[in-house]
């Protein structure tokens, strides 16, 4: 009887989803001005939307059927839920890859929300979404060029490499040379992204709303709202170009002490449109490539310090924050002036890429957020509560909010003996945090519902920066410890050899 009821729910969901998706597809096709595009949408959009329907229904059915009758809080339920989370994460991953575009962006968002969504989803998305993005063919790239600039790339540039050097969820990057010989990076939007965006947003929204309908504690509707607001801006590369210039202008006006240490590629406005962005080519190391950074004569710890300082300036002083600082968007090169540290190491310059996603923080938000971090560093429980409440966490969830920010349980957050800016990241601590997140999953969902979206983006930004800094500092420390162990081994062997030699001499 229960199984039959579940199958009926699944069938109703599929019918309702199909109706919504068909309406979304019709709206998208009706607003298209390109007959060829409309024809393609008629054949591709329904297939994509059908995948959404099947995936949403399959995930809901799996959760309801697998967890049916298992007592809340039992060990058996936890084991089964872990398996369902994993299966569902793989289903969502497969959907993201097949549909591409916005779905890849959704997967990337999920992969960066460590301890805010089930860890099975985070790990599955993080392992794949940044490295397996779709690639447009050269013919498709040419089509975008003809629509935007009226000519193919070979007519506009002296040289244009048809093979992209990087591909992301919304666009890919090609290397080219302008008619005056300048080397540039050309960002080309994946074809028809704008046309399919409306249907894709409807599909993503249905999946999230459906999961929330069946499982009220799974409330990630804020993520859909964020994508709905931010995606049109990210799809307009002229907005990205203006953001990059405003970012540098803020550093020059408001943070002149580090303005020379932060850079963004110059925009070639005459070769840029809403779907094409031509920028200065940057020859630099990726921020998490410690060996490449060291080969440049730069200390990784200096880079970690610069990354933290630059984003602190954006958050607390500028109020205009780059909200997608994962490793692929941060590059490092030696400071062009050639300035060196006291130890003779070259000073780093941080290069910021992908300026499509920015958030503005008003003065009160910046002040309260800065006050909260000060309280966290000083382990001041009263001030932590006061500022968490001001930011929207509420008097009942302020401790959870502090734990998410520092990635520590409350008893460690208020322990004055701990350094709250340091996260060990070892297996035992990671396991404890995962258990902590699982135990308070419903409370975390409620917290995410309450917090302003700008604060949610700050949480995501913090997670990205934490991952970058950990890769810089931890790898550097691990190599230092390894060298120390090797040195210790050599000294021990030398002492043993010396002892044997002395023993032998004494014996003789």
UniProtKB/TrEMBL annotation:
<dbReference type="InterPro" id="IPR004147">
    <property type="entry name" value="ABC1_dom"/>
</dbReference>
<comment type="similarity">
    <text>Belongs to the protein kinase superfamily. ADCK protein kinase family.</text>
</comment>
<feature type="signal peptide">
    <location>
        <begin position="1"/>
        <end position="26"/>
    </location>
</feature>
<keyword id="KW-0732">Signal</keyword>
<feature type="domain" description="ABC1 atypical kinase-like">
    <location>
        <begin position="129"/>
        <end position="387"/>
    </location>
</feature>
<protein>
    <recommendedName>
        <fullName>ABC1 atypical kinase-like domain-containing protein</fullName>
    </recommendedName>
</protein>
<dbReference type="InterPro" id="IPR011009">
    <property type="entry name" value="Kinase-like_dom_sf"/>
</dbReference>
<dbReference type="InterPro" id="IPR045307">
    <property type="entry name" value="ADCK1_dom"/>
</dbReference>
<dbReference type="InterPro" id="IPR051130">
    <property type="entry name" value="Mito_struct-func_regulator"/>
</dbReference>
<dbReference type="Pfam" id="PF03109">
    <property type="entry name" value="ABC1"/>
</dbReference>
């Amino acid at each position: 009887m229960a199984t039959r009821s579940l199958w009926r729910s699944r069938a109703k969901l599929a019918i309702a989803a199909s109706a919504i998706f068909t309406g979304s597809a019709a709206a998208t096709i009706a607003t298209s001005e390109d007959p060829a595009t409309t024809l393609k949408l008629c054949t591709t959009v329904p297939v994509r939307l059908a995948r959404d329907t099947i995936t949403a229904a399959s995930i809901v059915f799996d959760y309801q059927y697998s967890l049916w009758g298992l007592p809340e809080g039992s060990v058996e339920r936890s084991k089964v839920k872990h398996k369902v989370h994993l299966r569902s994460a793989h289903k969502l991953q497969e959907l993201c890859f097949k549909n591409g575009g916005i779905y890849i962006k959704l997967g990337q968002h999920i992969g960066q929300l460590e301890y805010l969504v089930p860890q099975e989803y985070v790990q599955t998305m993080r392992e794949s979404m940044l490295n397996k993005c779709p690639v447009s063919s050269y013919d498709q790239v040419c089509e975008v060029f003809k629509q935007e600039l009226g000519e193919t790339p070979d007519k506009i540039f002296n040289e244009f490499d048809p093979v992209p050097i990087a591909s992301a969820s919304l666009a890919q990057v090609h290397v080219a040379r302008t008619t005056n010989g300048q080397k540039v990076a050309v960002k080309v939007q994946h074809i028809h992204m704008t046309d399919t965006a409306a249907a894709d947003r409807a599909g993503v929204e249905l999946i999230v709303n459906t999961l929330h309908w069946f499982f009220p504690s799974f409330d990630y509707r804020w993520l859909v709202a964020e994508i709905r607001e931010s995606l049109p801006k990210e799809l307009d590369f002229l907005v990205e170009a203006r953001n990059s210039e405003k970012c540098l202008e803020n550093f020059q006006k408001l943070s002149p002490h580090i303005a020379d240490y932060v850079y963004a590629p110059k925009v070639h406005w005459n070769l840029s449109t809403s779907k094409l962005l031509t920028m200065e080519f940057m020859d630099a190391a990726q921020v998490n490539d410690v060996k490449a950074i060291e080969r440049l004569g730069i200390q990784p710890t200096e880079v970690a310090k610069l990354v933290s300082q630059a984003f602190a300036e954006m958050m607390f002083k500028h109020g205009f924050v780059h909200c997608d600082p994962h490793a692929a968007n941060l590059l490092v090169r030696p400071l062009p002036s050639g300035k060196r540290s006291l130890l003779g190491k070259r000073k780093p310059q941080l290069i910021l890429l992908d300026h499509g996603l920015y958030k503005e923080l008003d003065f009160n938000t910046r002040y309260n957020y800065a006050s909260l971090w000060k309280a966290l560093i000083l382990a001041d429980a009263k001030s932590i509560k006061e500022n968490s409440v001001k930011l929207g966490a509420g008097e009942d969830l302020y401790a959870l909010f502090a734990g998410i920010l520092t990635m520590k349980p409350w008893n460690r957050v208020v322990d004055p003996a701990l350094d709250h800016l340091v996260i060990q990241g070892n297996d035992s601590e990671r396991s404890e945090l995962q258990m902590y997140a699982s135990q308070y999953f419903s409370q975390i969902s409620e917290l995410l519902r309450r917090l302003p979206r700008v604060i949610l983006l700050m949480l995501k930004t913090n997670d990205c920066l934490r991952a970058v800094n950990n890769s810089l500092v931890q790898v550097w420390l691990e190599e230092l410890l390894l060298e120390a162990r090797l040195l210790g081994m050599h000294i021990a062997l030398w002492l043993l050899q010396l002892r044997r030699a002395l023993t032998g001499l004494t014996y003789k």
